[in-house]
Write a structure and sequence with these properties.
Elements lengths: L17 H14 L15 H4 L5 H8 L2 H4 L4 H4 L9 E2 L5 E2 L5 E2 L4 H20 L30 H13 L4 E5 L6 H4 L6 E5 L4
Parallel strand pairs: 4-5
Antiparallel strand pairs: 1-2, 2-3
Organism: Characodon lateralis
Pfam families: Hist_deacetyl
Protein name: Histone deacetylase 5
């Protein structure tokens, strides 16, 4: 997840960068909280898991590496806006917008690892194996919509996890608290029923 970064290498002009995860990890070490936590192994989300919320085209576009993408059915990748999926950023890198950078070599693995790690942690909490959890992942995943990457996010790990908890573990109501007030993108990007949303603006 640390390798998901703009090819320009300038973290000062990209607010979502590897330093965010490194800072969180350092702070947990400094405060001694890290020693009180049980660490679990992350994993990549499967394409099927991602497609529980996202379109097949979107999943293949952002969830496969260039080496694997050429093996796929190109008809599935040739959507009507395929030529406009990436933009050249002012820094010289590429992205889907000025905030949401894309690294052709590392981003697909990072986004799948972020989603899979959130799923893995949530399932352990829901199954009672862990009391609670905090996933330190990037890129974040709560802005992405069914067929649109935006706001640093490619896949909506929150919506995917909620949907899979309901489908696989039979979890009833799910409360999602979003403390940065990112509108209702979670509900726009999923057909999950019985998700109770609470938006709290702490800014």
């Amino acid at each position: 997840m640390l390798k998901h970064q703009c090819v320009c290498g300038n973290a000062h002009i990209h607010p979502e960068h590897a330093g965010r995860v490194q800072s969180i990890w350092s702070r947990l070490q400094e405060t001694g909280l890290l020693n009180r936590c049980e660490r679990i192994r992350g994993r990549k989300a499967s394409l099927d898991e991602i497609q529980s919320v996202h379109s097949e085209f979107h999943t293949l576009l952002y969830g496969t590496s260039p080496l694997n993408r050429h093996k796929l059915d190109h008809k599935k990748l040739l959507g009507p806006i395929s030529q406009n999926m990436y933009a050249v950023l002012p820094c010289g890198g590429i992205g889907v917008d000025s905030d949401t950078v894309w690294n052709e070599v590392h981003s697909s693995a990072a986004v799948r690892m972020a989603v899979g790690s959130v799923i893995e942690l949530a399932f352990k909490v829901a199954a009672g194996e862990l009391k609670n959890g905090f996933a330190i992942v990037r890129p974040p995943g709560h802005h992405a919509e069914e067929s649109t990457a935006m706001g640093f996010c490619f896949f909506n790990s929150v919506a995917i996890t909620a949907k899979l908890l309901q489908q696989k573990l039979g979890v009833g109501n799910i409360l999602i608290v979003d403390w940065v007030r990112s509108t209702n993108q979670i509900t726009n990007s999923t057909t999950t029923d019985n998700i109770l949303l609470l938006y709290i603006d702490l800014n």
